[in-house]
Design brief:
about 130 residues
């Protein structure tokens, strides 16, 4: 098989796998670039029994564990709100955690996510609890 035909076949395979959501690591590319993990920012508000149950502390710990940055705070309305920033796959994981898990003693009624946008760089250096 001529080399050019072999390279064309590899190119088609990569294009096909990319459409399926599979990512191939090209030499010299970082894994984040290869994974297509675009950085996003999203605001959130969590409703339910989420104050007085260490929700902010657990949210901060989960965010840090996932390598996300942002903040979390209690509101005067009895909710918890904040912002997440990081690779889209990690933010999606955190959104699911906020909707379904939270802290052990919390009870989540619903989670609202808004102002989702692609960002070029992170606005924060860590994940903070805002008092």
């Amino acid at each position: 098989i001529p080399v050019s035909a072999h390279l064309a076949g590899v190119g088609l395979l990569i294009a096909f796998l990319s459409t399926l959501g599979c990512f191939v690591r090209a030499p010299g590319m970082s894994m984040n670039m290869a994974e297509g993990d675009t950085l996003i920012s999203v605001d959130y508000e969590i409703f339910g029994k989420v104050q007085g149950v260490f929700f902010r502390k657990y949210t901060q710990a989960e965010g840090k564990k996932l390598g996300l940055v942002g903040w979390v705070q209690n509101t005067d309305q009895g909710t918890v709100q904040g912002q997440l920033q990081g690779p889209i796959s990690k933010v999606r994981h955190m959104q699911e955690w906020l909707e379904t898990r939270g802290s052990p003693k919390s009870h989540i009624d619903r989670a609202n996510f808004r102002n989702e946008k692609v960002i070029v760089k992170l606005d924060y250096s860590d994940f903070q609890i805002v008092k």
